Amino acid sequence: MAHPDTTLESRSRRNLLKVGSLALGGLVIGFSLPFPGRSFAEQVLSEGPEDQPMSNSTALDAFIGIDRDGKVIFTVPKIEMGQGAQSGLAVMIAEELEIGLDQITLKEAPPNEAIYNDKLLNFQATGGSTSIRSNWEPLRQAGAAARLLLIQAAAQRWQVGADQLRAENGRVLGPDGQSFGYGELVDDASKLPVPENIPLKPAEQFKLIGKPTRRLDTPAKVNGTARFTIDLVVPGMKYASARACPVIGGTVRSVDDRAARKVPGVIDVIRLGDAVAVIGEHTWATFAGVRALEIEWDYGDNADIDSAQMEREIKEALDKPGALANEQGDIDKALKDAAKTFEAEYQMPFLAHAALEPMTCVAQVRPDAVELWVGTQVPVRAQTAAAEASGRPAEQIIVNNQLIGGAFGRRLEVDFIHQAAAIAAKVDYPIKLTWLREEDTTHDMYRPHYIDRFAAALDAEGRLLGWRHTIAGASVLARFAPAAVPDSGLDGDAVEVAIHPIYAMQNLRVNYVPVPPKALRQSWWRGVGPLRSTYMLESFIDEVARSVDRDPVEYRMELLGSHPRAQAVLRLAAEQAGWGEPLEAGHGRGVAVQEVFGSFLATVVELQVTEDKGIKLKRLVVAVDCGQVMNPVSVKSQIEGGTLFGLSAALFNEITVSKGRVEQSNFHDYRQLRISEAPPVETFIVESREAPGGVGEAGTAMIAPALVNALASANGTRIRRLPLARAGYYVI
Amino acid sequence: MLTLSINGADLEVDVPEDMPLLWVLRDVLALTGSKYGCGIAQCGACTVHLDGEAARSCVLPVGEVKGRKVVTIESIGNTDLGQQVQQAWLEDEVVQCGYCQCGQIMSAVALLEKNPQPDDQTIDQGMAGNLCRCCTYTRIRSAIKRVAQA
User: With an 8 Å Cβ cutoff, is B95 touching chain A?
Assistant: First the structure.
């Protein structure tokens, strides 16, 4: 823990830096980027307000500490769940601080919105592909400020001008061959004010940024020593698992736990409002105990709901006006006067996250505090959930964040943390809650089912004059952050990408109709709004192009005149995929292009389809311009994995509901892409000095439309409703 | 009391014979590298070696393991091949979240033991039982080939 004895502020364009000393000697640099009062929707639509000053107390949990041995401790504001964000952020600091990546020790940030808020999301979270984008300037500035202070401290010792010194590899070098390790300078440096002017390295001088570097978290992940939440053991801990009412909103009426209590290793059975938990000496006892429970439920209001009804309600919503998201020109007139019109409706289903680590949380409720050990994308929300469940004030909740075994948005939710704290509050020892896979699949918080309706107006030459676009589905934002949704109900996430189509058109109307969720709790899923809209828009523009016998790449290219970066990735992907080269019968190519998460991507799928609907994926080619790259290997990994993650869902996945219950339960009936079905992903990065864009979700957003467009090209069948398996397609 | 041969050591455990090996490893012996993903041998995150063959420990009653040699991720690096596979996983930056990778590595080692020069089809067959939700499949293939070519 650091205690600042000198706290000085230096206002720069985007952040505030603070300097102080570590309790045991050393230098600490803290900074803050809160954008209070700013909603997610607002930030989608406008630029942000002024930065707010950072209070003295917030410097205590500062980001960068350098101790007297020269060890750099980086308190990372983002959690690692496979996306490589922590290593990417470490690269920024190492670059400006002139140290090797191996000199950095990572520490998980505690819940503290004053310091760790994401400036794009406006709360402390890892999500929305923001990690690199939000920290690009502030982290480099923090690293550069630390370097300048260390140089200044050396200059004072040697009584020479700072301009004669330079930093390299963790040392400050003097003009006559003398040098100090950073550790020798930290005490002096901690007493200096933060420099007024903190110039950042020009890109030509980057040694680490944009170069292939090894991730910091991977060595422990290949030998079994990496600890995820599910692996943790704290002193005195017992194991727990739970079964909640299969119908959301239902409650426990009565429990017959005689059989469960007879399971060897079962210690206790705990009744909660909507669930029953079994505590045991090991996880197996808790699983067997949960399976042996005889529970009578009061199923509540959702007990008669099924998928057909849910779909009907979304369809009916399409006929309502909903919230106007954007309007240009006069689309009604354009449609009336058009030489040709084209209409279509598309659907994407409910999806589970199905991360391989099921929901897990270690919780202890003690007289003095409540302590959580849990991998979470939202530490402050975790704190709030535990406070609510245990009846303790938030200040008493300690959150120790952990590595996450896949999240894809699932750990932006805290339902399982609430449950763990509620169980822990009823016993006097810590518990580790582990959900059965079946519980995880049936009690996920699902990606909403959306239905979009389009009508395009075309002139006699087939040129696009505009379109009318209506979106219907549940608003995740309205539940997750109600303050971010205006009275109109416009969900800034749901309409992202669709609200300002990348294609030039004079007439446009985009409406969004929120459909109040029933029976399923609905949430963020990798790709969020951009994934939603990209599937819809890229399916539709493809159909429009084909309806007027135009080449889908050429047609898009003409409409992208004001987006040269989009044109460039489209050209590159088309070139690399051999777009236009002749194909055998039954083969086809499909394309999608978009700007998502601040990055430009184009994806081309080449496939073969047999008469009995067997699909052989031949090639997946992705061109990406994500601005300045931190680590090209990480960018490629994210594009490869993200693309296949989206492919898996587009091919196979749909959550269905019968009698208020989710019908799928495990990987046998909610199947996922296997290596034998996964074609190699060929990724091409456009070199760019633009500000970094996100890549964690970008590949995922592109693949579904490219896939259905390829199928249409191969056999003339247009799939307007995902997944392909629903229409009888399978992978060969 | 059951005596188990785990990673070359004889260990005594006091557990019911129908308890899956996975939970004995994880919760009794504190060997947590083998992971729980599905409990029905669908995902492969729990893969260990049983007498040199890849086996899904989540459906393997510990009573059936008596007298057989179990090797887990915690000791696979003690063999040359195991170490080469782990190293290739790092060289090719296979790992994303990492949760499935211990199981992937155990399956890859078992595959390479049997077939030191696998082609794409053999790799796909040998690895199809291991799900990766981060979908690192492209790099798993290249890492296995890196070992094969070494």
Answer: yes
